[in-house]
Amino acid sequence: KRALFEARGDIFSVPVEHGVVRNLTRSSGVAERPPAWSPDGKLIAYFSDRTGEYELTVRNADNTGEERTLTKLGPGFRYWPQWSPDSKKVLWIDQAMKIWIYDFDTQTNRFVDQQMWMYHGELQGFVVSWSADSRWIAYAGDQENRNSALVIYDTQEAKRHEVTSGSCDRRTPPDPL
Predict the structure, then answer these.
(1) 3-state class of 27 per DSSP?
(2) How many CB atoms lie within 10 A of CB 73?
């Protein structure tokens, strides 16, 4: 019934139809960037530069309680937090093309993989597919030959599996028939 937006460095909750617009962060001098609602509707994840660097931050979706900074990654820019279906993990990619996952159960941050050929525009569009049980993620992994291979990553075993040959270029549209 509500949608999230980032504007002027703040996070807003906006009604789909009727109701009030809520500024959830109200943080003069602090920039909060792309918000994402957890699938269970309880939390909102975003990156905040309150510490001086963009760090993964969460707050209760009902705007009760304080925001919590979850990482200490240091300098750099991060893109679009992506929640697991069970709302227990958040994944993102950073400007160094590193893929990260924060796990709420263990309260740890884990490096997953690193892309080789993605830059700002492509980093903004980087998405993964989560398995329904939140154990696996699938994404197009960069190859040395500048093509991509389908990669699945097991979040329980912390193992990367390349499942295609890497002979396709995901960035090049197919030839017209």
Answers:
(1) coil
(2) 18
As a whole number of angstroms, the distance between CA 13 and CA 59 comes to: 12
**Can you spell out the DSSP letters for 35-82?**
EEE-TTSSEEEEEE-TTSS-EEEEEETT--S--EE-----SS-EEEEE
* Residue 28 pLDDT: 87
d(CA 47, CA 173) in angstroms, rounded, equals 32
Cα–Cα distance for residue pair 79/92, rounded to 1 Å:
6
Helix, strand, coil abundance in the chain, percent, nearest 5: 5, 45, 50
Q: Is 168 helix (H, G, I), strand (E, B) or coil?
A: strand
Q: How far is it, in rounded angstroms, from Cα 140 to Cα 169?
A: 10
User: Distance from first CA to last CA of the chain, Å, rounded?
Assistant: 43
Tell me the per-residue pLDDT of 61-83, one tens digit each, with 9 for 90 and over. Answer: 988 999 999 999 999 999 999 99
Predicted confidence band of residue 176 (pLDDT cuts 50, 70, 90): low
